[in-house]
Design a protein that fits this description.
alpha+beta; four-stranded antiparallel sheet; 10 strands; 34% helix; globular
């Protein structure tokens, strides 16, 4: 978990109800959907969630591969702190649980008013994003090798 984020949630000037709220979710409930706009990031308190994307195979076929699973202490939707692009994945509950839903604008404003803890929080978010990027790079490389082998192209290298 992003430990600095917990300090922000505990702060008196980051009030529950306007800056953040708890939210229960059910199994198969979609929390965020790829392509939608949403001004929140989420901290998983209890339960498990699955992150999926959508891949178009051709004009008539699409698949929704699982990107990763999330559990207690994981954060998702943190890209909303840096841009206002639509969601890049869908997140769905695997079983019932609880989230903390954090308003990204409130969080950015709070971090501006508290630069030391804000910087620490951003560094922790960057660390998580870097970890995810490295894992994604490994997956892409594995898929590339698999594709080359599956099509016999690896023999030409």
């Amino acid at each position: 978990m992003i430990s600095a984020l917990q300090k922000i949630l505990d702060s008196e000037d980051f009030p529950e109800g306007s800056a953040w709220r708890t939210r229960m979710f059910a199994a198969q409930e979609v929390i965020v959907r790829e392509g939608e706009q949403d001004g929140h990031l989420y901290l998983v308190v209890t339960g498990d969630l699955r992150v999926t994307g959508q891949v178009e195979i051709d004009d008539t076929r699409k698949m929704h591969p699982g990107i990763c699973d999330l559990g207690p202490g994981d954060v998702f939707g943190e890209l909303r702190l840096f841009d206002e692009q639509p969601r890049s994945a869908t997140v769905e509950g695997l079983n019932p649980g609880q989230l903390i839903e954090i308003d990204a604008n409130h969080l950015n404003q709070w971090m501006d008013r508290h630069p030391a803890l804000g910087l620490r929080t951003l560094r922790e978010f960057y660390g998580e994003l870097i970890r995810r990027l490295r894992k994604t790079n490994q997956r892409v490389e594995s898929l590339l090798v698999w594709g080359l082998r599956a099509h016999g192209i690896d023999k030409h290298f």
